[in-house]
Amino acid sequence: MTKTLQDLIDESIFISTEYQARLAELTGDSEWSVDFSAPSFTLSSDDSVALSPYLLGTESESRGSWIWSWQELGHFPDSVVSAAIQAREAGSQHGISELTTDELVLEDGLARRLTLATKAVTGIYAHYPVQAGAGVRAWLLLDGDLLELEAPTVNRMGRVMAQALQTGTAVNHLKAVDSYARLRGAHIEWDTEATAVITATDGALRLWFDEGKISGIEPAEPTVDADELNRCAAHAASLREQMRSERSEVERIAASEAAQHSAAREEAAAREAAEREEAAARQAEAEAAAQREAEQEAREEAARAERKAAEREAAEREAREAEEVEGTTTTDRVYTDVSDPYDQDPRDDAQPGRVTTGSFDDAVVADEFEQIETEEVQEAPATTERETVEVEETEESHEAYKPAAFRVAGEAPDLEAEREEAEHAPKKETKEKKGFFSRFFGL
């Protein structure tokens, strides 16, 4: 027989309300602390109040979802997540997707509904929502001897049902009343679907139903004796023990799955580490290749620059050699760094020099010019009337008037040869005083 999530909620709603009242009596307004490694749930005001916590899941407002604690086992002890796995197994048995889907979109009241449904399949009926972070709340089931309820009475059961109905959580009241009576160890007898009588140690109650909803409650005569009530209490205890034993089996399932999940996480971590190492190696190789390429490019660039410099130097040398004339110095070799040496601004490092000037005596200059004019007048007849004057040329006179050797522009003067020629040349005997221009120009 399959069930729905609401069926499980209806089965646990009344007994859950009674256990929550008992938990409130124990804790009051005291602060609490939870330790999943122990595991334990304790009160700060009274450390003797120690209960066993079972983590069902968390609801996150920022994430907008509910996540079951069995989604990734191995992070908590097996006993802590056993109730959540028990809910998952029941959900798989009855086809309830809310209990078998690891993460659900968060809706108003979803966490409480999932918690109530889990109570119906685990037999743990007290819960406590704890703040686990900003916008995150963890839902726990709590169990322990201190939460055990006293024998049922119709007065208490009537108050609990009236309180639970005010929440509007129950839908099928017939199912809710029948489950509550059986789980509490009370006796319930159905006359028709419209009426039922609950018998407890202090009396009986008749409940009236209209279209599946409780429409009235009134006192009634007990329908069974004490022996039957004892059998009902024993049956209720056996139901709780059966669910507790199922939870022990679930813990073994949790341990096995936790080992698988841990191995999967370790494998994934190792794979991620290997991928990171491989990526780092590829990155290092790429960087090394880029470095080698950059160095090779730098070497090639340096070689190209060196070749260009050598070619430029060779071209300049060839140009200089083509323009050089032996015995001369051209301005391009004097002013190698400028294109027009005569149209330049003064150098920044130019140092001031000294220029000296002098003048000739006017009497000396006049005497020189007078002597030159006298010589020209005396020699004029000999040069203008060549055809009537017989000049006897001798070897000596020929040598005396032989034109001086001349040089081609660009040839270096042979000073030693000129000195030897001057020593062996015949000396012209004259006592004429040479003038200024004759001395200056070497005439």
What can you tell me about this protein's structure?
A hairpin with a 2-residue loop joins strand 9 and strand 10 (203-210). The chain has 443 residues and is α+β, with helices and mostly antiparallel strands. The chain is built from twelve helices and eleven strands. The chain has a domain at 5-169. Strands 1, 2, 3, 4, 5, 6 and 7 form a seven-stranded antiparallel beta sheet that branches. Helix 1 packs across helix 5, helix 2 (78-94) crosses helix 4 and helix 2 (78-94) crosses helix 7.
Highlighted features:
single chain, 443 residues, alpha+beta, seven-stranded antiparallel sheet, rod-shaped, disordered C terminus, Hydrolase
Radius of gyration: 63 Å
Question: Treating each run of at least 4 consecutive H or I residues as one helix, how many helices?
Answer: 12
> Alpha-carbon distance between the termini?
149 Å
Helix proportion range: 40-55%
Task: Give the overall silhouette.
Answer: rod-shaped
DSSP strand tally:
11
- Estimate what percentage of residues fall within beta strands: 15-25%
**Helix-strand makeup class:** alpha+beta
- Mean pLDDT across all amino acids: 81
Secondary-structure element series: HEEEEHHEHEEHHEEEEHHHHHH
Flag low-confidence runs: 382-410, 436-443
Major β-sheet profile: 7 strands, antiparallel
Q: How would you summarize the topology of this molecule?
A:
Layout: H1 5-27, E1 32-35, E2 40-43, E3 50-60, E4 65-68, H2 78-94, H3 97-100, E5 103-105, H4 110-122, E6 126-133, E7 136-143, H5 154-165, H6 173-184, E8 187-192, E9 195-200, E10 203-210, E11 213-220, H7 226-323, H8 331-334, H9 362-384, H10 395-400, H11 415-424, H12 436-441
Antiparallel strand pairs: 1-2, 2-3, 3-4, 3-7, 4-5, 6-7, 8-9, 9-10, 10-11
Helix pairs in contact: 1-4, 1-5, 1-6, 2-4, 2-7
Region (Disordered): 240-405
Keywords: Hydrolase
Protein name: Hydrolase
